[in-house]
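Figure-free illustration: sequence to structure, shown twice.
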Amino acid sequence: MKRLLAFTVCLALFVLLVPGMRAVAAQQEQVDVYEQKQLVKSVVFVVGQDRYFIDNKVPGIKMDAAPFIEQGRTFVPIRFLSNALGVENENIAWESPRVTLSEPGFPVVELAVGQKQIKSDGKVTKTDVAPLLRNGRTFLPARFVAEALGYTVEWDAQNNIVLAYPKGQPKPDYSEVVDYIGGEQPPVKEEPETPVGSAEELYDKAKPLEGKPFSFADWNFAPEVQKSLQDKWDWLNTTNPVIQEVTVADLKPNGIEIAGKDGHRGDIIHDLKVTPDGVTVTASNPGKSMPKFYLVEEGKVVRYRGGGGYMGTVTGTLTAPVDHIRAGTPDGMAFLPPADLTKVTHIMFELGDELLLVQNPLYKGGN
């Protein structure tokens, strides 16, 4: 009888405690990032890790999927991204293909799978990526959603971290998160800052190319290479082609336009990133195609990467692996192994009679 009584008491306690246990689990799964309708917390996502972190607290909140990078943007499953940014589950509406986040007192954010735009309180902003469906799940681009909900967003390439914190607030400390994940992570492709806007807006803001007449004397080409260049490329035979040398920083904030002297709209080069594995170009073109470029090496041999590739929008980003950049001298006769990008002094863009030489930040110099 005593055993039966003890069992009954334990069973009653279990029944009473289960709701509380569920409540604790729910609190661990979703953290309130708002206090008195003010955004006060920071949010950290780590690419490839199945946890997100609120206000520099570890071990963080477990997810059943990890963020990943595609098309230069970080994608996070809809529910976890929304929860981390303070949107409760009942305020996440999914009606294929549209997602609506409608947390009371904050902007109503709308996105749709396959559509490169985000709407915040009715205001439409163009984006360079669209929400994705993967394995039956919806993934949202973290940057655009966070910004629409009132966050500043930064990318920490050293640790593969997306950091979001309230606009106007000092950048928060997230060192505990970095320590918890083990410090520096294997590198992934950094999110490029892709300009968004109409063609007219982009071209009105871009800086024109301002340079000096091109001269072979300035480059000290070997005679056989000089002849090969002149025979191969028409721009070297035009009257006084113009050349400008810049750094990557000089391309900011609105890019440099290479238009040629005929007055038609050309290519805007917005950004350039170089790693040992390849070259990433962010550019605008009215024909919605990527520009071609050349690698200028220490020995003044120029390698070539053909343009083209339909972007679908006026602005796009292209990553060219090093072995996709043609390994040959300009005459196409003497073929070389893939370029060592630490020995490339410049990445060169050209159109008509204008040449833009961007200094390679990876160049280590040579003896």
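We now fold a second protein in the same way, so the two outputs can be compared directly.
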Amino acid sequence: MSGKDTIKKPGNPVRVICLLLVLLCVPGVSAAAGSDDEVVRIGVLAKRGPRLCLDMWSPTARYLSGAIHGKTFVIVPTDFEHIYDYVEKGKVDFVLANSSFYVELEEWYDVDRIATLRNRRLEGVYTKFGGVIFCRAHRDDIKTLRDLKGKTFMAVKE
């Protein structure tokens, strides 16, 4: 990750999205806690490790803590295995993860989306997440996902 990928300005679109996310949901969170000095935990999928996750998202937490009176926002880096446990056990109040995790979290734990992160990459803004399956050039029998039925292939993780 280059230095220009680090979030530093309050006007950054990611910060605005996070602020909107929090403003939409904090009344329900504060009513449940009944405290004027509440910690709001944002679970962030740390796909490149906890250190980089904290470097990237802690400025957003500091900004939100200063912008919303009575709330202290903290970033909770989560790995691929523990994100489900953090949600199930209420260790986080919000989750920032890719769409494949969201689909499962919605199904298993009734999580609701309230914002979509817009990533700036390669001269464009993207709200979609995807993957690629490569096959050997001689495999003329594999052209679509349906063609994988009955076949095996490798992946990073199931």
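Summary for the second example: The two ends are 26 Å apart (CA to CA).
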